[in-house]
Amino acid sequence: MSLRDQIDIDIKTSMKNGDDAKRDTLRMVKSKVLEAEVSSRSKKGRDYRLSNSEVQQIINSYVKKLHQAAEAYQTGGRADLSSKELSEIEILRPYLPEQLPEEHLRKLIGEIITETGASSTQDIGLVMKTVMGRLKGQADGRLVSQIAQELLA
Question: How far is the C-alpha of 15 from the C-alpha of 122, rounded, in Å?
């Protein structure tokens, strides 16, 4: 079953269970997925459907926006709105690839620094490109960047 189909099933289940927060969050994601599909159809054909990895990219992008909004609300003194954004993130977490632990990331980034021959923080772009290409959504870019900067410093 595709991730898109699973989201549809989970929307129906949350409607039956009266879980408005989950229903609304998943509907937002579904609308973003449909929007991406419609815009891709002019290039890829009328019956085009996004792959699971493309749907995960959309969800990941939405989760990043939710993180940014939660941080903005927190700094603005609106803990109630921040907690709402964070709860939406928790609803979407099962639809994303499992995040790698920090220790594993440090080891992997260290190996990539050695492979690429990076020697200073000026080479961070090369390291980031390689790491993010291999991980494909299994790590937050900010955390990867922070670890890479620490290791290159």
Answer: 50
Collapse the DSSP code of 76 into the 3-class scheme (helix H, G, I; strand E, B; otherwise coil) and give the result: coil
Amino acid type, 140 = D
Q: Is the pLDDT of residue 6 over 90?
A: yes
- Tracing tokens 């949350």 back to the chain, one arrives at 14
CATH of 102-152, one of 3.40.50.300, 1.10.10.10, 1.10.220.10, 1.10.10.410: 1.10.10.410
Q: What b/e string do you get for 13-50 counting C-beta neighbours within 10 Å, with b at 16 or more?
A: ebeeeebeebbebbeebbeebeebbeeeeeeeeeeeeb
- The amino acid present at 95, given as its one-letter code, is Y
Q: Are 55 and 33 in contact (CB under 8 A)?
A: yes
Write the CB contacts of 94 (distance below 8 Å, at least 6 apart in sequence): none
| Nearest CA among 39, 15, 37 for reference residue 27 | 15
Q: Enter the pTM of the model.
A: 0.76
Tens-digit pLDDT profile for residues 71-109: 999 999 999 999 999 999 999 999 988 888 888 888 888
pLDDT band at 8 (very low <50, low <70, confident <90, very high): very high
DSSP structural state of residue 96:
S
